[in-house]
Amino acid sequence: MKQKRHQKILKIIAEKDVKTQEGLTDELKACGFLVTQATVSRDIKELGLIKLPLADGSYKYAVTKEENHEIAEHIMIFSKSIINIQAAMHTIVVKVRSGMANAVAASLDNLIGHEVVGTIAGDDTFLIIMENPQAAEEMTARLRKIFSWKE
User: E strands, 47-111, where?
Assistant: First the structure.
C-alpha cells in the first residue's frame, strides 16, 4: 500500500502544483487513499520531496533532482537572454538571443511542462502552445514575472 501511495504522490505532484501537506492529503483522499497529514509528512520525507518556488511567490512540492536544483539558476541566467515574450492566440512566442532557444525552452519544460500542450524551439525563438488564448495570456504574464521581463 505504501508503495502505491508513493507512486500516486509522485504522479500528483508531477501533474499539479501541490503547495501544502494538507493539499496533498486532500488529493490522496480524493484518489481513495485513507491517509492522515502525519502519514503524508512521513511520505514527503521518505520520497525526499523539496519545495520549488512558483512565479506567484508560493511553493510547490517536487521530486529532488539535480535539474530541479538548477532551474532557479537557469532562470537567472536565461532572464538575460529574453528579448520578447508575447501571446498570439493560444501560442506564446518567446524571442531570445541567438542559440539560446533550446536551452531556455528545456528549462521551462521542467518548470511548467505539465501546464502546456507543448513547446517547440528554434535558434532564437521558441513557441509554447497552450489550450486557449486565455491560458496563453495568463502564462505570458507568469513568464514575464519569472524572468523579470518588462515590455
Answer: 50-53, 59-62, 82-88, 91-96
